[in-house]
Amino acid sequence: MPVSCPYQFQQDIDGFTEKYGVTGDNEAIKNMTYMEKKALLVQNFGVAKAKRATASLITNKVNDDGVTNREGKGTRDSTIMNKAKELEKSKENIAKINKK
Fold first, then answer.
1. What are 22-34's pLDDT values in tens digits?
2. What is the mean pLDDT of residues 13-26?
3. What pTM value is reported for the model?
4. What contacts 57, CB < 8 A, 6 or more positions away?
5. What is the pLDDT of residues 54-77, one digit of tens each?
6. Are 21 and 36 in contact (CB under 8 A)?
7. Integer Cα distance of 99 and 11 in angstroms
8. Could you tell me which of 17, 57, 64 has the C-alpha nearest to residue 39?
9. How far apart are the C-alpha atoms of 71 and 34, rounded to whole Å?
10. Share of the chain above pLDDT 70, in %
11. Which residues lie closer than 8 Å to 71 by C-beta, 6 or more apart?
């Protein structure tokens, strides 16, 4: 086997593949969100404190599609966006006046 890095290390555990049948990435896990993966890990391997913390995160999770246009990114209320546009216009007007 050719060496690809100075500290190359490869380990095989006897009987691991036969016992657990790991052949590749699981498609269901690939399609999970970060929170779903975290909840799955904590459910299977986590201690009670981690389980409580994850349950709290899931309970308080906000499902929000958000704003789809780039201009309004980060704003959920149109009044905030309108006020920001007004301030930008007034800033431009002041800059025009100062140039004269």
1. 666 778 878 888 8
2. 73
3. 0.38
4. 35, 38
5. 888 888 876 655 555 555 555 566
6. no
7. 71
8. 57
9. 27
10. 70
11. 81
d(CA 100, CA 94): 10
- Provide the residue type at 56 as one letter: S
Average pLDDT over the chain reads: 76
Secondary structure (DSSP) of the chain: ----STT------TTHHHHH---S--HHHHTS-HHHHHHHHHHHH--HHHHHHHHHHHHT--------SSTTTT---HHHHHHHHHHHHHHHHHHHHHH-
- Which pairs from 42-49 meet CB under 8 Å and 24+ separation? none
**What token pair was written down for 71?**
């201009």
